[in-house]
Specification:
The protein is α/β, with parallel strands linked by helices and 302 residues long. The chain has eight helices and 15 strands. The longest helix is centred in the C-terminal third of the chain and has 15 residues. The mean pLDDT is 95.
């Protein structure tokens, strides 16, 4: 029994930051950030994913050293791993995204059998999770979580990414916890007002809706009440990639333990503040520091 099983493709990311001419080549994919953040809080985690023949053995070693179970990782030898280029503007507030390769979707036959988890987190980055796979996973868990970014991305002939409302939104009917950015939830619902978009998602039966706001923190909707969660100011801002994933990874790790949504949100905010202090998925701090920052946020808001 795992605490959190994350589902979605790993990627190989090229991150271009304004302070440097050449890219940092790092392990990417929401599943990586979610898993690392949850592991820092001692959650038992596994990943269901597919990678190609070019996926570095060093990345697998790193994941396993961190305690991430890879029994659900499929090696696809006749394909290449999903790859993205991320280019940030001068103040790191905006980025452009370009897909250099997209691996074929996760199949039902890729799913471990048996599979049992307290929480299954769907974290697609390039349309790799079908409704059929999501339905199968729903039967394996008490709680299903979704980050919809990979379901609303559209790719032009050069791989440049724009957001587009999906024609099939049935997956929301399977979800208990939903996490996105404002732009993503607006795109998904077709509503320009974030509060209205949150209500539209909740109307599908979703219990908890989280909208991360970067330096402004997050809003968390639970039981018809919207809570505003402060961001913890990082000691330095190096690379914002994966902050939202770290938030939800830490949130779910605490939620799996039965903690309150308020505490889970503060821990998520604390974890997000740590990941941005390094390049890619390399800076997560330790459990004590995450909790110290979470308690500081709690005291600030009381």
């Amino acid at each position: 029994m795992f605490d959190i099983v994350s589902v979605g493709h790993f990627s190989i990311d090229s991150i271009f930051l304004p302070s440097r001419q050449t890219a940092f080549i790092v392990l990417g994919g929401s599943v990586a950030y979610v898993s690392f953040a949850a592991r820092r809080l001692d959650a038992r985690v596994s990943v269901i994913s597919r990678v190609g023949a070019d996926f570095p053995a060093a990345y697998k070693w790193w994941l396993q050293q961190e305690g991430v179970d890879l029994s659900g990782l499929a090696d696809v030898q006749n394909e290449l791993t999903t790859r993205f280029e991320l280019r940030y503007d001068n103040d790191l507030s905006n980025r452009s995204l370009c897909s250099k390769n997209r691996l074929s979707p996760i199949r039902v036959e890729d799913l471990p059998n048996p599979l049992k988890a307290k929480i299954i987190h769907l974290a697609p980055i390039a349309g790799e999770i079908t409704h059929e796979v999501a339905e199968k996973l729903r039967s394996c868990t008490e709680v299903m979580s979704l980050d919809p970014q990979g379901l609303i991305r559209s790719f032009d002939e050069n791989g440049n990414v724009t957001l587009e409302q999906p024609t099939d939104r049935r997956i929301l009917g399977l979800i208990d916890v939903f996490k996105s950015t404002p732009k993503e939830i607006q795109t998904l619902t077709g509503l320009s007002d974030v509060d209205s978009a949150i209500e539209a998602v909740r109307s599908q039966g979703v219990s908890i809706v989280i909208v991360t706001l970067g330096a402004e923190g997050a809003v968390v909707s639970v039981e018809d009440t919207i809570h505003r969660v402060s961001a913890y100011k990082p000691e330095k801002l190096v690379d914002p990639t994966g902050a939202g994933d770290a938030f939800v990874g830490a949130f779910l790790a605490e939620y799996a333990r039965g903690e309150s949504c308020a505490w889970c949100s503060h821990v998520g905010s604390a974890a997000a503040s740590l990941v941005v202090e390094g390049i890619g998925p390399t800076s997560f701090g330790d459990k004590e520091e995450i909790y110290r920052r979470a308690h500081a946020l709690c005291e600030k808001e009381t």
